[in-house]
Amino acid sequence: MSRESEAPAHPASVLFCGGALDLFTVTGPAQSMDEGLEALRAARPEHLRDELAGATAAFSRYSGITAPWSKTPWADLAHDRALRQELVRFLHDYHRVAVAPHWSRIQARLQSEQTSHARTLACSGAEAMLAELPPGFRWRSPVLEIGRGALTGEVSLAGRGLTLVPSAFCRTRPIAYTSATDDQAPVVLFVPVIRSVCDSAAVLTDPGDGTHRALAALLGRTRAQALDAIGQASCTTGELAGLLSVSPATASEHATVLRQSGLISTTRHGSAVRHTLTPLGSAMLNGRPDLAEPARR
Predict the structure, then answer these.
(1) For position 291, what pLDDT does the model report?
(2) Is the pTM of this model over 0.90?
(3) DSSP letters of the chain?
């Protein structure tokens, strides 16, 4: 492995890998990685100190291992600007190596989940949307239980709103976040979208390899991405445009070609149309077009 592709190291990385450290509690929501890192640079020392102390205590409690920097200068990470900047560089480099190569597929998966919940909310209401959340949530009106077994808990909104955030980074357990500085801010509920080995494979498989590369050569890169997006979850033309970052007219053109080729089917729902993968389209995505061919004598 070349040095360029090696993941960077940092004393705090063990806390991230173990899920004990979540810097969202320090930075708050951000529109991009750069914006989040800038918020980390500007975070108040006491907020970062409290987050690190809580993460270190949780890590030690569950692993029986003392944090690797407890007796080093890293113990003052919250107050030392140079050490904080080194943490920022580590996160930037780690994102470049571990996340950026998969980001387009992660984003498509997140948008698909968001679209599904928004559709249920619009058509059937909030209770139906909460009832369809994945394992780890249980809606018992008027209470949403979070967790499983002995770890099941409840979050009181106390008049605040609730924001659902699909996440590819909270493994299989839901996470609730309540602002420590704003008692009017909505409670943020992170909903895992990677819930199985298949989900992981779909996100981590490089579409530039094998079948996806062949499809891009056959259909064109954007059209192959459109077929893959529809394969992740049926969607409207507007939703497809968002997933591909193209205009609705361009998305409609790609969908028309895919439909005429027998790779997707399109049905009308009110004023919108919804695109769904056909058996031939599924076989093409899986690299087995022979599965869609009729049996021959």
Answers:
(1) 46
(2) no
(3) --GGGSPP--TTHHHHHTT---THHHH---SSHHHHHHHHHHS-HHHHHHHHHHHHHHHHHHH----TTTTSGGGGTTT-HHHHHHHHHHHHHHIIIIIGGGHHHHHHHHHHHHHHHHHHHHHH-HHHHHHTPPTTEEEETTEEEESSGGG-EE---TT--EEEEEESSSTTS-EEE--SS-TTSPEEEEEE---SHHHHHHHHS-TTSHHHHHHHHHH-HHHHHHHHHHHHS-EEHHHHHHHHTS-HHHHHHHHHHHHHTTSEEEEEETTEEEEEE-HHHHHHHTT-GGGGSPP--
